[in-house]
């Protein structure tokens, strides 16, 4: 959209209704108005609906991300780190796969900075299950950063690190449908880790997220199951977007036939409230076999491959790297490192 003069809500919304793309600066202006509390719920809702109806572009999402990060409490974590996250919204109500996978990745010795919030479309979000496990969420940004080094894993609670997002809540709640804001969580980690493993329910969303990460020079595996699951699982083939060296390549992997996992039904991954999901976390980290363990190991492998620093995860085909990642993740569970890390993290969060 190349209209003359300063942006206004009517100018942007009229352009979107005419199916004109925004420039990144125009998207930044819109997000800046939201972050400053200077947009009404009606203006924001109209903007988000028009943007979704047209179809978001990489440049538009990139502009939203950059402005959101400009208003966030940012943290610096020394060295390389990774995030393992699912966007949610797949309506399958699974246990907290990405949270468990994050603990396994950290147990394997790769520093994890996880970013998330409370449940929006499920019974238990990352914040909910971590709180049920005994982790304190009321950490200052400075303490959150310290824990990454002390423990090897930390959690950026979205409402603490992105306080200005409260201005968008009424419009998002009133709309009740996915919008561009659903893309922003995995892209606005306050530490901006070098690598990410991100599960999404929609292919269009996956392509956008992968494109933004590539434009920002990150490395990642973005993936979705053909059944719409925002995790990697042996419920069927999965589509993966591999982000590296500024580009994106698409791959299809069948976890059962190519990685040796036992075929499962998504119902075998279904979870409950935060307390019951926390119990599942402890059982899996204690070595309990079954479909949840295999799924956690697979998603941990995705995080390890995105990071690429462990032997075997930085060379070979994607399938070969994932196989190595599964083996590394299994050792981190079976020798107790992942469970021990969780306990150290809980204790450290109390100080």
Question: Care to describe what's here?
Answer:
With 351 residues, the chain is of the alpha/beta class. Helix content is 48%, strand content 12%. The protein is built from 16 helices and seven strands. Strands 1-4-5-6-7 form a five-stranded mixed beta sheet. Helix 11 links the parallel strand 4 and strand 5. It is globular. The termini are far apart. The model has no long low-confidence stretch (mean pLDDT 94). It comes from Actinotalea soli. Pfam families: Glycos_trans_3N, Glycos_transf_3. GO terms for molecular function: anthranilate phosphoribosyltransferase activity; magnesium ion binding.
In terms of topology, how is this protein built?
Blueprint: H1 9-17, H2 24-35, H3 41-54, H4 58-70, E1 82-86, H5 97-107, E2 112-116, H6 126-133, H7 141-151, E3 153-157, H8 158-161, H9 169-175, H10 181-184, E4 195-199, H11 203-215, E5 219-225, E6 238-244, E7 247-253, H12 255-259, H13 274-285, H14 291-307, H15 318-334, H16 337-349
Parallel strand pairs: 1-4, 2-3, 4-5
Antiparallel strand pairs: 5-6, 6-7
Estimate the mean pLDDT confidence: 94
Structural class: alpha/beta
SSE succession: HHHHEHEHHEHHHEHEEEHHHHH
Question: Into which percentage range does the β-strand content fall?
Answer: 5-15%
Whole-Å distance between the termini?
51 Å
Q: Describe the global form.
A: globular
| Unreliable spans | none
The order of strands across the largest sheet is 1-4-5-6-7
E-strand count:
7
Report the sheet with the most strands, covering strand number, pairing sense and barrel closure: 5 strands, mixed
Organism: Actinotalea soli
Pfam families: Glycos_trans_3N, Glycos_transf_3
Family: In the C-terminal section; belongs to the anthranilate phosphoribosyltransferase family.
Binding site for anthranilate 2: 172
